[in-house]
UniProtKB/TrEMBL annotation:
Stored InterPro entries: SpoIIM-like (IPR002798)
The species this protein was found in: Chryseobacterium luteum
Record's protein name: Membrane protein
Record flagged with keyword Cell membrane: no
Transmembrane portions of the chain: 99-120, 173-203, 215-242, 262-280, 289-309
Protein origin, superkingdom: Bacteria
Keywords recorded for this protein, A-Z: Membrane, Transmembrane, Transmembrane helix
Length: 327
């Protein structure tokens, strides 16, 4: 069958499914399942005969959207908050997983720029971090207390200030995506270069090990969440720049809804990072090294599993369940 005829034959059905996804047409769970099965058949046909066609890309996107719609609708007894974190967010992260990869690649690139800049320009840390901060930290390093800057202020006061500051940084990384992703990349560049120069600064003064024992106690959650927030900004930007078959406005609405849900999932990690920084980091050099490592490694395992491994697990589980339902 020629692709043009295939599109003409199914166009009305696909447009109707778009209406269902957008909530303009209501369907019960059984009807949604029938639509999904029908759409999967169209997708399989397109993948076989038009593998590199925009039609295949469109049907793949449409099937993923109706797929999510089914399991939102079928959920009856499950707690909304549990469902959000256990199923909805992982499915969205899986759907937009390439943006997470892009965000991490940019993060690594920008952080490397910060490290190289610090290595080739000894005044770079002063410019990026501020002379007062640099001078205070140098004095702390000389006293054998590389993380002394984290010991000022009360625990609860510091924690609240840190949490709100980090949420603000994350919000900027996300919202700046409305500029087509350019603002997000600029914000990520700024924060990553600061991190790179910050770490090289400690290396240059022979205190990298001590600084890592303290900084990465809270830094694993904080920095990883920052990258995921940048991912959300890139999704938002892409929804504006690349609407595909949708109108630009409908594409933006869909991109905003999905990216905002992923952004919300970073808030608990940001709060945990703030609590650790306010209450634990100040004691970093007094703690046994094994405890530092346990906190850092367990934090990395938790957040890494949630955003890199668990989305594939959820997608595979639901896909297998749906295949059994079809059979």
């Amino acid at each position: 069958m020629r692709e043009v005829y295939f599109i003409k034959q199914n166009k009305e059905k696909w447009l109707g499914i778009e209406q269902v996804i957008q909530g303009k047409i209501k369907k019960n769970p059984d009807d949604l399942s029938s639509l999904y099965i029908n759409l999967i058949n169209d997708l399989s046909f397109a993948q076989t005969y038009y593998p590199k066609s925009n039609t295949t890309v469109y049907l793949n996107h449409l099937s993923s959207q109706i797929f999510q719609k089914i399991y939102k609708t079928k959920r009856v007894e499950e707690n909304r908050l549990i469902y959000f974190f256990r199923t909805e967010v992982p499915l969205l992260v899986y759907q937009y997983r390439r943006y997470l990869l892009y965000a991490f690649l940019f993060f690594i690139l920008f952080t490397s720029i910060g490290v190289l800049s610090g290595a080739y320009d000894k005044d770079f840390a002063n410019i990026i971090l501020g002379e007062d901060y640099v001078n205070e930290t140098i004095e702390n390093i000389k006293k054998g207390n590389a993380v002394g800057v984290y010991q000022s202020g009360s625990t609860w006061g510091s924690t609240i200030g840190i949490i709100f500051n980090n949420i603000g940084v994350g919000a900027k990384l996300y919202i700046y995506g409305i500029s087509g992703g350019v603002g997000t990349l600029f914000a990520l560049l700024s924060n990553s270069v600061m991190l790179g120069s910050f770490q090289y600064f400690f290396y240059d003064y022979g205190a990298l090990k001590d600084s890592a024992r303290g900084i990465w106690l809270h830094g694993v959650f904080e920095i990883f969440a920052m990258v995921v927030e940048a991912m959300c900004g890139l999704i938002l930007g892409a929804s504006i720049l690349f609407p595909k078959t949708f109108s630009r406005f409908n594409s933006f609405k869909s991109g905003f809804k999905d990216s905002f849900k992923i952004f919300l999932s970073t808030i608990p990690f940001t709060i945990c990072a703030g609590i650790i920084e306010g209450y634990v980091t100040r004691h970093a050099l007094k703690m046994p090294l094994v405890i530092n490592l346990a906190i850092i490694i367990s934090s990395l395992a938790i957040i890494g599993f949630y955003y890199f491994v668990y989305p594939s697990v959820v997608h595979k589980k639901i896909n297998n369940h749906n295949n059994h339902a079809v059979l």
